């Protein structure tokens, strides 16, 4: 599956109505004078799959950190459906509809797969709500449904610690799916996966993008070509190039960065 | 509370109390320096740090009695030897403890806290069995007693100046060791990235052991200085552990300058307040202020904003 | 590390998340029988009162299981909450014991004796609420919980945790002790609040009163165990474990992490406060020596010995350590500190999951195998011996 499946009108965006799902504007963050992200702007449309690529240290993960509130911006703005995210707490950003997957699988080793998914179920998020949370039919059905999607329906009662690396990555994707975010951010979803797992993951991603935007960081160019609608290239904290994979691949600046030294 | 004093009186009080707090400041700096190395560099919470200090104090006491009884001629200079012996005794015990206990717990910082607390109970009992429950005092050589008259209202105790000088020397020595020597480079390398340091051929186990020993040894010297302001008992060290941890945290762990600044501000606040209030209230107010500031600014006085 | 929450019982289907598993019901039954039947039937009045005192520490250990074992928040200041609860109760009892009649030889009759000794001539404002029993009963829990809330809210909002939190709580325990000792006129100083006599006219010093209080204490403890079990079994319990593992993940699942930590810390404080109040009632005094760093850390070791992840283990751990302390310090007073210190080190190095861990990792699998072997020819009785979750 690839970008061709989607109507090309979406990819070009519609200039008249700038109804971006996510608008990152002049975003800057500095750590003791070092600007890890420097004046970065990009815009993500509804239902778009955007891939961010770039060499190590380009600031890709920091951009995701900034969007989800893990790191606070020094300057600039991040608007999600018109709402400014830079002022919100992490949990409020999640509740607004932004989900984030970490680079290394970030799951709860001591809990079962079922419990991992249950914690991500978007109900009972207050202290009192969590105390009185009932594991009812709706919760169970949803967890079973997600487990099926992420190929883990036979592992529901297993402790997450005992899953394989690829399964852990899927579990984390499942934990995001159950939140049903409108913007899904994935940090290197196929890193460290076997070829078979990689194919399954691409399949999984193509299944779950329906009705949401996805922001992906990935190094695997084959994988990027498979899924990306548009690509943003970061280099030393700045946007180097942006556009379709085809365009970016032939951009001399990008070639210089990847092959020049 | 300042109402009944004139401005001149007040400044004299601040200076005098300041110098009276010199030894306390020195003990704090030395204790905190040792702890900052262990906690800041290694991430280990050593609850037995007070007992390492008290070991130094007991060594000083033993030296004092030994010289008095057997080598009275050399008594005036025994304190130098006592400090060196205190450093060696506490340092050696520290290395032994690191080998037997700490190295198994590097991945569980909260558990080192419990284990070293257990160690501190055992050491306290050992001191009680060996030296008795009664507190012991140290006889100072005559040249350390008395004070220097600076102005007619300000005088400075000589032992305070002496301990201060030793503290400065040790602090500079530690700074040079950590930031200039090969050993310091290795320590910093291990702390920054343990597997990588191992990969470039640094024996990280050895570095850990010497670092821990160094921290404990400095605590021993603090114990030597401590004998000048208080008598030594099996549980004297425990009284200092809370203050010292607060100093290290307040200064921003892993910052040498921060540790000194925070030891200075805490000891000076306390000794100045002591002039106006009862000792216990001075301590309560000082500690409350520190805890309050830490709640508002948990990273302490000196820290870098780092990329996570 | 063993699995804390869902132990390896694969047979449990996804659909049931029972309040307690059979083994937990058995553990509870065992505890109830021992505390409410066996001990009262076999011990004399003095020893039973002693066990009652130990069980007040068990409240603290129980709170630590939730706060430290589950949420990963090590507090070295639980003595504060134990002490505050105890002091609130003691202030009420002291006022009742300081009636005008009882204190007519004082220069100011009607105030506690230590105030009179310290030239205080009227009752300070913060003592006044403790003239009423209902208000006292509320304050016994409200004061420590509010205190815990202020501390933990300030710290957890700023993401202070782990070792820093431990150091700060320890400092707070130290400050509170120095304050209580220093303000003799208001607090009774180093001696604490002593010479307590009656609770709403009921003499608490008699053997029969001790006996009744013992059962009240036991009942409250079991009530607290059930509350703790409810919390542990709820989604909140699993969130606590999840937070201990991967705090960021929980945050990015849409939870405000600080709120959950504050809850765990306040719950532990509330348990400790109940224990403190029951201590005052059963022992007849309260003093700063139960507030400071040493008792606070001692209580952590009770939970550690029992198993930091096990509610029932915490109770058994408390009883065991205190029993050892009493018998040791009776026969070899010098050796006790050595023994306690060695126990700390041994538990941390060799048995990080305490008694419950030994049970779960070594005894339970063996028993299950034996039972299964027996069951094949004939149904066997399920053994109920050691402490377990």
UniProtKB/TrEMBL annotation, chain A:
<dbReference type="InterPro" id="IPR027417">
    <property type="entry name" value="P-loop_NTPase"/>
</dbReference>
<keyword id="KW-0067">ATP-binding</keyword>
<dbReference type="GO" id="GO:0016887">
    <property type="term" value="F:ATP hydrolysis activity"/>
</dbReference>
<dbReference type="InterPro" id="IPR032823">
    <property type="entry name" value="BCA_ABC_TP_C"/>
</dbReference>
<dbReference type="InterPro" id="IPR003439">
    <property type="entry name" value="ABC_transporter-like_ATP-bd"/>
</dbReference>
<protein>
    <submittedName>
        <fullName>ABC transporter ATP-binding protein</fullName>
    </submittedName>
</protein>
<dbReference type="InterPro" id="IPR017781">
    <property type="entry name" value="ABC_transptr_urea_ATP-bd_UrtD"/>
</dbReference>
<feature type="domain" description="ABC transporter">
    <location>
        <begin position="22"/>
        <end position="261"/>
    </location>
</feature>
<dbReference type="Pfam" id="PF00005">
    <property type="entry name" value="ABC_tran"/>
</dbReference>
<keyword id="KW-0547">Nucleotide-binding</keyword>
<dbReference type="InterPro" id="IPR051120">
    <property type="entry name" value="ABC_AA/LPS_Transport"/>
</dbReference>
<keyword id="KW-0813">Transport</keyword>
<dbReference type="GO" id="GO:0005886">
    <property type="term" value="C:plasma membrane"/>
</dbReference>
<dbReference type="Pfam" id="PF12399">
    <property type="entry name" value="BCA_ABC_TP_C"/>
</dbReference>
<dbReference type="GO" id="GO:0005524">
    <property type="term" value="F:ATP binding"/>
</dbReference>
UniProtKB/TrEMBL annotation, chain B:
<feature type="transmembrane region" description="Helical">
    <location>
        <begin position="275"/>
        <end position="296"/>
    </location>
</feature>
<dbReference type="GO" id="GO:0005886">
    <property type="term" value="C:plasma membrane"/>
</dbReference>
<keyword id="KW-0813">Transport</keyword>
<dbReference type="InterPro" id="IPR001851">
    <property type="entry name" value="ABC_transp_permease"/>
</dbReference>
<feature type="transmembrane region" description="Helical">
    <location>
        <begin position="52"/>
        <end position="71"/>
    </location>
</feature>
<keyword id="KW-1133">Transmembrane helix</keyword>
<dbReference type="Pfam" id="PF02653">
    <property type="entry name" value="BPD_transp_2"/>
</dbReference>
<dbReference type="GO" id="GO:0022857">
    <property type="term" value="F:transmembrane transporter activity"/>
</dbReference>
<dbReference type="InterPro" id="IPR017779">
    <property type="entry name" value="ABC_UrtB_bac"/>
</dbReference>
<keyword id="KW-1003">Cell membrane</keyword>
<protein>
    <submittedName>
        <fullName>Branched-chain amino acid ABC transporter permease</fullName>
    </submittedName>
</protein>
<feature type="transmembrane region" description="Helical">
    <location>
        <begin position="77"/>
        <end position="101"/>
    </location>
</feature>
<feature type="transmembrane region" description="Helical">
    <location>
        <begin position="12"/>
        <end position="40"/>
    </location>
</feature>
<comment type="similarity">
    <text>Belongs to the binding-protein-dependent transport system permease family. LivHM subfamily.</text>
</comment>
<keyword id="KW-0812">Transmembrane</keyword>
TrEMBL record, chain C:
<keyword id="KW-1133">Transmembrane helix</keyword>
<dbReference type="InterPro" id="IPR001851">
    <property type="entry name" value="ABC_transp_permease"/>
</dbReference>
<dbReference type="GO" id="GO:0005886">
    <property type="term" value="C:plasma membrane"/>
</dbReference>
<dbReference type="InterPro" id="IPR043428">
    <property type="entry name" value="LivM-like"/>
</dbReference>
<feature type="transmembrane region" description="Helical">
    <location>
        <begin position="133"/>
        <end position="156"/>
    </location>
</feature>
<dbReference type="GO" id="GO:0015658">
    <property type="term" value="F:branched-chain amino acid transmembrane transporter activity"/>
</dbReference>
<dbReference type="Pfam" id="PF02653">
    <property type="entry name" value="BPD_transp_2"/>
</dbReference>
<feature type="transmembrane region" description="Helical">
    <location>
        <begin position="25"/>
        <end position="43"/>
    </location>
</feature>
<keyword id="KW-0472">Membrane</keyword>
<feature type="transmembrane region" description="Helical">
    <location>
        <begin position="55"/>
        <end position="77"/>
    </location>
</feature>
<protein>
    <submittedName>
        <fullName>ABC transporter permease</fullName>
    </submittedName>
</protein>
<keyword id="KW-0812">Transmembrane</keyword>
<feature type="transmembrane region" description="Helical">
    <location>
        <begin position="335"/>
        <end position="359"/>
    </location>
</feature>
<feature type="transmembrane region" description="Helical">
    <location>
        <begin position="163"/>
        <end position="182"/>
    </location>
</feature>
<dbReference type="InterPro" id="IPR017778">
    <property type="entry name" value="ABC_transptr_urea_perm_UrtC"/>
</dbReference>
């Amino acid at each position: 599956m690839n970008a061709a499946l989607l109507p090309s009108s979406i990819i070009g965006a519609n200039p008249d109505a700038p109804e971006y799902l996510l608008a990152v504007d002049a975003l800057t963050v500095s750590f003791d004078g070092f600007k890890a992200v420097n004046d970065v702007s990009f815009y993500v449309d509804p239902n778009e799959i955007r891939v961010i690529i770039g060499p190590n240290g380009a600031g890709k993960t920091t951009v995701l950190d900034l969007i989800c509130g893990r790191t606070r911006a020094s300057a600039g703005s991040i608007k999600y459906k018109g709402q400014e995210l830079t002022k919100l707490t992490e949990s409020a950003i999640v509740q607004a509809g932004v989900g984030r997957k970490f680079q290394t699988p970030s799951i709860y080793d001591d809990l079962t797969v079922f419990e991992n998914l249950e914690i991500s179920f978007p109900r009972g998020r207050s202290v009192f709500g969590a105390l009185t949370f009932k594991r009812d039919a709706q919760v169970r059905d949803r967890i079973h449904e997600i487990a099926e999607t992420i190929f883990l329906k036979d592992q529901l009662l297993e402790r997450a610690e005992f899953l394989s690396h690829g399964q852990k990555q899927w579990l984390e994707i499942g934990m995001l799916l159950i939140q049903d975010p409108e913007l899904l951010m994935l940090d290197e979803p196929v890193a460290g996966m076997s070829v078979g797992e990689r194919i399954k993951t691409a399949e999984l991603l193509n299944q779950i993008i329906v009705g949401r935007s996805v922001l992906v960081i990935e190094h695997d160019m084959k994988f990027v070509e498979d899924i990306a609608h548009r690509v943003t290239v970061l280099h030393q904290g700045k946007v180097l190039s942006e556009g379709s994979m085809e365009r970016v691949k032939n951009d001399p600046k990008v070639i210089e960065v990847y092959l020049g030294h | 509370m300042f109402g009944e004093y004139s401005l001149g009186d007040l400044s004299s009080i601040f200076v005098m109390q300041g110098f009276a707090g010199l030894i306390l400041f020195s003990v704090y700096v030395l204790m905190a320096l040792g702890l900052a190395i262990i906690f800041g560099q290694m991430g280990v919470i050593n609850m037995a740090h007070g007992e390492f200090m008290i070991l130094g104090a007991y060594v000083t006491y033993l030296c004092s009695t030994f010289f008095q009884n057997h080598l009275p001629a050399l008594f005036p200079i025994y304190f130098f030897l006592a400090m060196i012996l205190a450093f060696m005794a506490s340092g050696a015990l520290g290395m032994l403890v690191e080998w037997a206990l700490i190295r198994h717990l590097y991945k569980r910082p909260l558990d080192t806290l419990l284990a070293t607390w257990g160690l501190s109970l055992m050491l306290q009992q050992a001191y009680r069995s060996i030296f008795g429950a009664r507190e012991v005092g140290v006889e100072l050589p005559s040249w350390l007693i008395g004070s220097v008259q600076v102005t007619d209202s300000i005088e400075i105790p000589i032992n305070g100046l002496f301990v201060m000088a030793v503290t400065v020397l040790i602090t500079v020595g530690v700074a040079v060791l950590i930031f200039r020597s090969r050993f310091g480079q290795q320590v910093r390398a291990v702390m920054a990235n343990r597997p990588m340091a191992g990969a470039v051929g640094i024996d990280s186990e050895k570095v850990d052991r010497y670092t821990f020993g160094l921290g404990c040894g400095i605590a021993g010297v603090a114990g030597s200085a401590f004998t000048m302001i208080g008598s030594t008992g099996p549980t004297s060290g425990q009284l200092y552990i809370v203050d010292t941890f607060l100093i290290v945290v307040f200064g921003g762990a892993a910052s040498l300058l921060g540790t000194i600044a925070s030891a200075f501000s805490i000891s000076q606040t306390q000794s100045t307040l002591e002039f106006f209030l009862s000792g216990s209230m001075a301590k309560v107010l000082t500690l409350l202020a520190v805890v309050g500031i830490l709640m508002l600014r948990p990273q302490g006085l000196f820290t870098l904003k780092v990329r996570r | 590390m063993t699995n804390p929450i869902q132990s390896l019982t694969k047979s449990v289907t996804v659909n049931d998340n029972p309040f307690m598993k059979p083994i937990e019901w058995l553990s509870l039954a065992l505890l109830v029988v021992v505390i409410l039947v066996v001990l009262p039937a076999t011990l004399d009045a003095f020893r039973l009162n002693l066990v009652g005192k130990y069980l007040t520490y068990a409240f603290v250990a129980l709170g630590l299981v939730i706060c430290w074992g589950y949420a990963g928040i090590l507090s070295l200041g639980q003595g504060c909450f134990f002490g505050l609860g105890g002091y609130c109760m003691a202030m009420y009892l002291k006022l009742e014991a300081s009636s005008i009649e009882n204190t007519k030889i004082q220069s100011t009759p009607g105030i506690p004796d230590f105030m009179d000794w310290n030239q205080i001539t009227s009752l300070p404002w913060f003592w006044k609420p403790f003239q009423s029993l209902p208000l006292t009963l509320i304050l016994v829990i409200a004061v420590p919980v509010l205190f815990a809330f202020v501390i933990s809210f300030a710290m957890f909002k700023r993401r202070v945790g782990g070792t820093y939190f431990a150091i700060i709580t320890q400092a707070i325990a130290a400050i509170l002790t120095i304050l209580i000792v220093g303000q003799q006129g208001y607090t009774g100083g180093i001696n604490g609040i002593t010479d307590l006599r009656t609770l709403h006219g009921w003499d608490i010093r008699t053997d029969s009163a001790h006996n009744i209080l013992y059962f009240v204490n036991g009942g409250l403890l079991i009530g607290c165990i059930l509350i703790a079990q409810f919390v542990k079994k709820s989604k909140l319990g699993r969130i606590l474990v999840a937070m201990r593992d991967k705090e960021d993940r929980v945050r990015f699942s849409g939870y405000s992490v600080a709120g959950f930590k504050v809850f765990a810390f306040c719950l532990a404080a509330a348990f400790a406060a109940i224990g403190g109040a029951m201590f005052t009632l059963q022992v007849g005094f309260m003093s700063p020596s139960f507030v400071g760093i040493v008792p606070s850390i001692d209580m952590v070791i009770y939970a550690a010995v029992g198993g930091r992840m096990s509610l029932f283990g915490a109770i058994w751990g408390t009883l065991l350590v205190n029993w050892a302390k009493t018998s040791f310090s009776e026969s070899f007073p010098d050796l006790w500190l050595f023994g306690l210190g060695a126990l700390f080190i041994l538990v941390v190095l060799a048995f990080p999951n305490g008694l419950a861990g030994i049970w779960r990792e070594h005894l339970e699998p063996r028993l299950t195998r034996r039972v299964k072997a027996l069951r094949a020819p004939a149904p066997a009785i399920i053994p109920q011996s050691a402490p377990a979750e």
